[in-house]
Structure to design on (382 residues):
């Protein structure tokens, strides 16, 4: 379940975005993940879950992920997602 | 003989899970889509749903690169299908509801325009009386989500003409799908075999033999299936699965097709699978 803490996550803070994402993953998959684990590698998550990650990131950090950014590789690890969020949130407020 | 030209404009009847998914597949392949539904509320959400499907398809690299998406038009009027080159009806999996939708659309479209009922189990010949020109009528069984599954089960009814079949194959080719054509009958091939099997997977959970995760792990890890039966049930939608099982049970009398009590209990609780956020698995949806 998404908590109010998730909603107030600071996109400007990499640590805040990382904690938010790890919390979301833990609540949805009932297991803990490392920030650099490949989520879609063998034994990991279904690739369909990537779309849930897109929706979560867009709603939580008020960003839009479109065009060339919509690549599975951008969602493969928490670290990569944090980079994407920071880049999109940064360009959105510029 | 000249090649049959693929449809330029597709009308999709029904803005539910399958209707929106099929619309997204066509739009992503550059085909114009008229999406019809009698429910204005559902139609209002369709644009957002279709866009989300298109994003998923792009994320999975399931769309042809560099294709300009087709135009989406939504309407509550049957006349919205008048200029379609092919119509796919994808309303609720109930024979009477499908027959009513087909009867409303059939007089509007030009003769020679294939009218396709997308169904997981209702025999095409049963619905033929609803359309004005049986030779233009046939069936598909798209799997969910349509843009991620390469092959489409195509059902040829007893009165389906060759040209309708050719035109449907041409459209599916343009959408990058492979058509596999089968004869008519309750559940055709895939649902007739798969749905009673999923029902039995529900039974073993009900009887306490194994939890859903264990049932699915055996199918994936021992039998090499890509997805286990209960996760597949969640993807189909538990209500759609039960509707299909009812169709099979009523028409075959096969007791293995009578929907299991646990399946019906979940539906009553509003746990319909992935689309409601909860089914045999939790997808983060609201607890009902």
């Amino acid at each position: 379940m998404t908590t109010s803490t998730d909603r107030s996550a600071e996109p400007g803070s990499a640590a805040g975005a990382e904690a938010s994402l790890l919390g979301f993953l833990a609540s949805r998959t009932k297991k803990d993940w490392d920030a650099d684990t490949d989520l879609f590698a063998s034994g990991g998550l279904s690739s369909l879950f990537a779309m849930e990650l897109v929706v979560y990131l867009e709603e939580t950090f008020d960003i839009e992920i479109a065009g060339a950014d919509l690549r599975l590789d951008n969602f493969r690890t928490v670290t990569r997602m944090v980079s994407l969020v920071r880049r999109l949130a940064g360009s959105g407020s510029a | 003989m000249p090649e049959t030209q693929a449809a330029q404009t597709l009308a999709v009847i029904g803005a539910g899970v399958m209707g929106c998914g099929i619309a997204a597949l066509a739009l992503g392949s550059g085909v114009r889509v008229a999406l019809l539904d009698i429910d204005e509320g559902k139609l209002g959400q369709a644009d957002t749903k279709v866009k989300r499907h298109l994003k998923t398809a792009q994320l999975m690299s399931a769309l042809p690169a560099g294709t300009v998406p087709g135009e989406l038009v939504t309407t509550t009027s049957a006349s919205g299908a008048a200029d379609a080159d092919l119509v796919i009806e994808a309303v609720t999996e109930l024979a009477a509801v499908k027959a009513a939708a087909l009867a409303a659309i059939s007089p509007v479209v030009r003769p020679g325009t294939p009218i396709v009922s997308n169904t997981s189990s209702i025999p095409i010949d049963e619905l033929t009386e609803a359309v004005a020109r049986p030779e233009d009528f046939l069936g598909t069984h798209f799997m969910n989500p349509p843009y991620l599954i390469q092959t489409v089960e195509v059902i040829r009814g007893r009165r389906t003409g060759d040209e309708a079949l050719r035109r449907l194959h041409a459209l599916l080719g343009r959408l990058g799908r492979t058509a596999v054509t089968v004869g008519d009958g309750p559940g055709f091939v895939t649902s007739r075999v798969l749905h009673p099997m999923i029902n039995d997977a529900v039974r073993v959970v009900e009887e306490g033999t194994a939890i859903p995760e264990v049932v699915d792990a055996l199918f994936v890890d021992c039998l090499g299936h890509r997805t286990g039966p209960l996760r597949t049930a969640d993807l189909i939608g538990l209500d759609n699965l039960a509707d299909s099982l009812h169709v099979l049970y009523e028409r075959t009398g096969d007791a293995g097709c009578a929907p299991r009590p646990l399946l019906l209990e979940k539906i009553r609780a509003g746990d319909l699978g992935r689309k409601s956020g909860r089914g045999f698995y939790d997808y983060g949806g609201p607890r009902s």
Notes: The radius of gyration of chain B is 19 Å. Residues 28 and 40 of chain B are 24 Å apart (CA to CA).
